[in-house]
Amino acid sequence: MLYEDLEDLKKKTNSKKLKKKIDAIQEALNDLCSKSGLCLLAKGKNVEKALKTVRYEEDLVKLQVELIKLQNWVFENKKRVLVIFEGRDAAGKGGAIKRFTERLNPRRYRVVALPKPTEVEAGQFYFQRYFAHLPNPGEIVFFDRSWYNRAIVEPAFGFCTEEQYDKFMQEVPEIEHALIDDGIIMIKFWFSISKKEQQKRFKERQLNPLKQWKLSPVDMKAQKMWDKITFYKEEMFSRTHTTFSPWIIVKSNDKKSARLESIRYVLSHIPYEGKEDAGTTLHPDPEIVQRYHRKSKQID
């Protein structure tokens, strides 16, 4: 009855504004009456949150279809793609990578999350252990943290010397230029999170037995070290943001929007075939994803 009443009302009115509102209501009802929407409502989610989740899931699937097309293009054309995810602890890097990869062919991508270097690795050329994981022809590699550990975490927590830090900061732009010049498509994401939101997520991890493994001794110090990490982060941006390898800032206090918009950025950045047939927009929201700029307001 409600659908019929809305249709009748739309036929009777001459107001374009009212017709748009009716269309929006009908669209919302369709989304809420889906299997996912009804499940969320049955679990006690309020209408607004349920609607947001349903639309997020629908949009995510459409974007993941595009990621499959991108992966096929990378494989068929023997391209090499490297996507780096950096950001403060609990910024949502791992969750974003999961959404990037969960529908991809597992034989054609890798996720790299390296542990603390061994004694042998600590004595090697710093970039050596990372170079071993660079993408092969036809492959996409996602770095869950990268060589940029030496730009922030290591100096902030005293895991490297000042000399090692300075050497890294001088070398990394040249090394990235060489990788890109060799044909690697590189994207560097910084997932930005507020101090308040980070604290909230840490508490959630402490209370959730399925997430407690994510907490480390370094994580527990992150709030106390906020300002020091901020200092090194700003130094990193200032010295490693280049025209050929820019930092892309993703506002990630809202995990869902950060995931969707970071996927959109990758899709918009790489010229894969079939983009024109996408079932959703591939243009990232500039309020959520933006290129780092030195005149930008404070980035967390």
TrEMBL record:
Its EC number is 2.7.4.-. Gene3D superfamilies: P-loop containing nucleotide triphosphate hydrolases. It is an enzyme of class 2 (transferase). Pfam families: PPK2 (PF03976). GO terms for molecular function: kinase activity. It comes from the Bacteria. Keywords: Kinase, Transferase. The keyword Transferase applies. InterPro entries: P-loop_NTPase, Polyphosphate_phosphotransfera, PPK2-related, PPK2_PA0141. Residues 52-276 form the Polyphosphate kinase-2-related domain. NCBIfam families: PPK2_P_aer. Uses inorganic polyphosphate (polyP) as a donor to convert GDP to GTP or ADP to ATP. Belongs to the polyphosphate kinase 2 (PPK2) family. Class I subfamily. Homotetramer. This is ADP/GDP-polyphosphate phosphotransferase. It comes from Hydrogenimonas cancrithermarum.
